[in-house]
Structure formats: structure tokens, C-alpha cells
Amino acid sequence: MSNVPADLRYTKDHEWIRLDADGTATIGITDHAQAALGDVTFVDLPKAGKIFAHGDVFGTVESVKAASDLYSPVACEILEANGALNNAPDLVNREPYTCAWMIRVKVTNPAELAALLDAAGYSAVL
Amino acid sequence: MPETLARTPLYALHVELGARLVPFAGWEMPVQYTGIIEEHLAVRRTAGLFDVSHMGEARVRGADAATFLDGIMTNEMASIRIGTARYTVMCQPDGGCVDDLIVYRLAETEFLICLNASNAPKDIAWMRSLIGKAKVEIIDECNDWAQLALQGPLAEQILATLTSLPLATLKRFAFVIGEVAGAAGCIVSRTGYTGSPGFEIYLPSTSADKVARALLAAGRPLGLIPTGLGARDSLRLEAHYPLYGHEISERISPIQAGLGWTVKFAKPAFVGREALARQAEGGPPSSVILFSLDDRRIARQGAAIFAGEISVGEVLSGTLSPLLNKPIGTALVAAGYAGSADLCVDIRGHRIPLHIATAPFVK
């Protein structure tokens, strides 16, 4: 069974979102997603300052088997991408919820947060 | 109509080992157990055990077996010595490939042919359609045989603990028949599809589970792990071995695929000879290249190849080479561009320069 931490929010596209008190959020892919992808070999992430609408493709995660798009779970502006993944994309397989966070963002439309799944809701779609 | 997937005799073992099972060529096959990269590197450094029981087998026997095969295969068949095998292509009249195969000579008038899983029924029907008046019979043995591939530098050491067959003196593309782990009637062949040393073992389906478990038990302490079709694909691509449907197909001839060495024009007649001779003399319209990228993005099947702004071909296979730790692949490019120094591949809008390889990435 895949790991679904209780303190995160999720999308049906297998991304997780950690909401911070200052209105920023951190986004990555779930344990289920990394297991389905297999060995991750490359993560293509946007530069700081880029703006995405809810559902936009913000990057690509690539494994030996396939390349998969990453979808922005909420409208946001990129504050920072995780540079550690350039040299160690396999962190996504090993630490999907911690070291392998992908982007830190400013949430530009907080109303969208209500539509995200909680851990129980995400577990139900797995 | 929902497709019913076939299962190999090792299905229960795959489930026990935690394999990820996927549909492949009509079979439910393990794509990986622990991870493609780890499995790939085990084959290069120690050993891996593949279930390749989905592969097909046909026995060809009769007084005219050798001459019949010489008439339908591109390589020489009559000169194969008993106890050895040869790689060959079987072509259509237009030079396109029906399949690529390994032909084992069991006796003067008896051969066993290993067929690609997805092509096995087509191959057998094709061969039977060409029998004419030849004194030969073609027996479909796809369900009788299981196949294991034990590949890697420690393969011989591991296998030697389970058989008294003379492995040390067995040359590449030679085989012996006998007992492995108590199972009689196994064909042990020094062949493989990985670019690492090793063996392919044809064994009665009923013995497969027992032999596979014995091999894993004997090999685990030395680093042997079960390996899936994902690693098989990245291993064969490093070794630049063609995969049917990618580097060779009904539209890509052996001449285009760089397999001209398997086409023996000295033979007076074989299916496809005239078309292949025209390609060999005049140059084929396109040919297969092997490449690597200095990037992390993998160029996958179908990605377009450009020379400047001109589209000159497409990627046939692509993966990450765990050995080089960079993407590698093959592409079909138009005549005149196969040696070009400035080809690029388009990966999701990024133009990445190709480095054409002149030799496989493993020897």
C-alpha cells in the first residue's frame, strides 16, 4: 500500500500540496505516483516567477518507462523549484514527500484550495 | 472483444516475487521486480534471471529442412553445425522483415527456431505457406517450452552449480542438451539478448518453476536477482540488438537495420533476395542509427529527428542507459543523413543534439 500522509492535500493526478501559514505551498508527487512511474531519471521544472492556472502543465517527470506531465493543482506563481532534483532525480522514488518536493509556490486563488482532496479522499481514489 | 492474456509457467513465482505485471505481446509479463536500473546493473555486474517463456518455438524437420530454411531465411542455414545456433532474419519478397530468429540445429534434418512472441502465429503460418513440395514439417511447439535467460558475468558460475553439462567449453551460439536442476531435456545455449555473457535455457514448461527457483536460490548469494522486460529492453538497446517492431519490421529491412551481415547474397535464392540486393547496391532509402544524448530527457519512439529545419526521421527506441547514465536510442533517418554530424531530436519542443554512435555501448 502506498503512503498517504495525513497532513497533506492531494489531487486525482497524484500530486500533493503542503499549505503553509504564510499563503505559500509546496508541491510534489505522491508515493503512489513515484511507484507507478518506476525509476525517475529526470524532472523538468519551471523557473521562479512563472505563473500557472489551475490544471496547467508546469513540468514533466520522466522515468525509464515514460514521461508524464505535472499539473498545477491550483493557480500559482513559482517561488522556487527544487534544484536538488537536477542531480538526484531518484530522490523522487526515495523521498517523495520530503527531499523530492518539486515547486514552492504562491497560491494566487486560495478559493481553489477547497477543491483539493484530503488524505482519506485521495486514498479513496487509489 | 476483451483480450485474454496468456501466463507463463512462472506466473505464480512472479507474483510471489512482487513483480509488476503488464500486458506484452498478448502475455502478462513482469516488466520489473525491484526497479529497471537496479536490474539492468545486476546483469552487467553479477547476474539476472529473465522469464522469456513468451517467446515462441517451432520445430522444422524433414529431409529438405536445411534447404527449405535456406530458401526462406537471409542467413546461411545448411552450414549451421549440429549443436550450434545462428541468428537470421526472415524476409518478405519486398525485403521487409517477417521476423528475426535464432535457428538451432538439433540434427542433420531437424531445427528448432526461436520466434518473437508477437510474431509466432504469423511466422508459423508464413513458413507453412512456403513449404510447397519440400519434404519438411513445421511443428508449433510454443506451448511446450518455457525459456529462461540467465545473463551476466556470474551466469556460468551459477548455472554450473545445477548442471553437469560442459558449460566451460560451450562457445558462443553453441548449445548442449541435458539436465538442469534435475529437469531433463533442457537446451542450454550460450546466447542472449543483453550484451552480457550468459545462457538461454529452453526447458519443458512443466519444469520451469522448479528450475527457476533453483537458479534463484543458487544465485542469490552471488548477487543474482530476478529481472524483467524493462531491463531486458535497456540492456538490448545498449548492446544495439534490434527489437522487432522497432529497429526491424515489415517496413524496415535488414539492410536498413544494419543487419547486412545476416544477408547472404551468395545463396542463389531466398525470399527477399532481389529487393535486398537492390537496397545493398543502391543504398536503402533510410537506415537505422544508434545515438546518445548529453541531456536527461529520453528521446522516445516517434520523436522527430531534424537536420536544421528539415524532418529527416524518427526515433525507433529510446531509454536511459544505466551504464552511461545518459539517454540512448535508435532512429530511422533518411539516406544521406545517417552520418550527419548535426542531427537533433525534438523532445517536447526541446531540440537536443544527437551523438551518433559507431559501435554498441557494450561489447
The CATH class assignment of chain A is Mainly Beta
What is the top-level CATH class of the domain at 11-53 and 144-238 in chain B?
Alpha Beta
* Strands side by side in the biggest sheet of chain A: 1-2-3-9-8-5
CATH fold-type name of the domain at 11-53 and 144-238 in chain B: Gyrase A, domain 2
Count of spatially separate domains of chain A: 1
Number of helices of chain A: 4
Number of strands of chain A: 9
Order of helices and strands of chain A: EEEHEEEEEHHEH
Helix content of chain A: 10-25%
CATH topology of chain A: OB fold (Dihydrolipoamide Acetyltransferase, E2P)
Beta-strand content estimate of chain A: 25-35%
- Ranges of chain A where pLDDT stays below 50 over 5 or more residues in a row are none
Notes on the structure:
The complex is a heterodimer of chains A (126) and B (363). The mean pLDDT of chain A is 95. Chain A has helices at residues 31-37, 84-87, 91-94, 119-125; strands spanning 9-10, 15-19, 24-29, 40-44, 51-52, 57-63, 67-71, 76-81, 103-107. Chain A has a single domain (9-111), classed as OB fold (Dihydrolipoamide Acetyltransferase, E2P) (Beta Barrel). The radius of gyration of chain A is 13 Å and the shape is globular. Chain A has 4 helices and 9 strands. Chain A has 126 residues and is α+β, with helices and mostly antiparallel strands. A 6-stranded antiparallel beta sheet of chain A has the order 1-2-3-9-8-5. Chain A has a 3-stranded antiparallel beta sheet with strand order 4-6-7. Among the domains of chain B are: 11-53 and 144-238, Probable tRNA modification gtpase trme, domain 1 (Gyrase A, domain 2), CATH 3.30.1360.120; 285-357, Elongation Factor Tu (Ef-tu), domain 3 (Beta Barrel), CATH 2.40.30.110. Chain B has 8 helices and 19 strands. In chain B, the strands form 4 sheets. Chain B has a 6-stranded mixed beta sheet with strand order 10-11-12-9-3-13, with helices on both faces. Chain B has a 6-stranded antiparallel beta barrel with strand order 14-17-16-15-18-19. In chain B, strands 5-6-7-4-8 form a 5-stranded antiparallel beta sheet. In chain B, α2 (36-45) crosses α7 (229-238). The mean pLDDT of chain B is 97.
